[in-house]
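Exercise (ungraded).
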Amino acid sequence: DAKTTQPTSMDCAEGRAANLPCNHSTISGNEYVYWYRQIHSQGPQYIIHGLKNNETNEMASLIITEDRKSSTLILPHATLRDTAVYYCIVSPPMNTGFQKLVFGTGTRLLVSP
Amino acid sequence: ETGVTQSPTHLIKTRGQQVTLRCSSQSGHNTVSWYQQALGQGPQFIFQYYREEENGRGNFPPRFSGLQFPNYSSELNVNALELDDSALYLCASSKQGDEQYFGPGTRLTVT
């Protein structure tokens, strides 16, 4: 079973920030928070990951609470092409020799004009 | 584009048949993972190969098997196909310490 809880769906207006929450209250000390998204009928796309510090890349920002029990993915200026299912996953990193990503049902984000 | 390719794109098989799906990893990646995604659900982990050996497996029966080749490409084989095997099959490649990058998937329909 997935170790994360996400809202089933969210709406966002084009050009506004999309803030997608994720609860992972049972996260272990060696587990990172990963975010992937899946646009309809395509393979999941890696977005970002982090351990405890906030992270930012060209796609998004990841804010992790100090107790690491929850996080928020931020798409700063959502576009129609950001409409997708967003998955929050907790997992040890690949450099431990093995990584199994456990996907839940994710958050379906709809960006509207 | 992740550089991970899968073939075929779509496939229709009959119950009881066998199927082989193929995955070409991104250059420099030595680990490949396979996932099954049923309609309306998130991907489910099948197994992972590292340097040609299976190093982890999910809750799938033995009729799901795989291979990884010296060039790190991979195959997923499913024997005795069942109707419930109809799904999108995804492979993901990675290197140690890196993230998993997914291919576009193979849509398998079992009739």
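Further reading is listed at the end of the chapter. For now, observe: The radius of gyration of chain A is 13 Å. The mean pLDDT of chain A is 93.
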